[in-house]
Design brief:
8% of the residues lie in helices and 44% in strands. By secondary structure, it is mainly beta. Strand 8 and strand 9 (104-106) form a beta hairpin.
Length: 107
Amino acid sequence: MQLPPKVTPRAYARLAEIGAGEQGQALRVAVEGGGCSGFQYDIRLDAPSEDDLILEGEGQKVVVDSVSLPFLAGATIDFTEELIGARFTIDNPNASSSCGCGTSFSI
């Protein structure tokens, strides 16, 4: 049995700040082929669909499609603010390596 991804309270709070739930949208986290390490994350606001895993907290939703779910098992979705900018991040225990920008990884 695979562990579902986890979402931090900070990530849910950021979604609330930008009003995602009020617009009927969720944070979609997907894995696609590409990037400098083989796979890359696609993180965007989108409407949930029927076959998505829906993670809910603080009135907000994060969705993961069924194809991406095995790649994100046990991952932690967070939001960080640093001098170089603010962004949603993924700490993925399935990734054996990642690129310097953190958006691309290999398994």
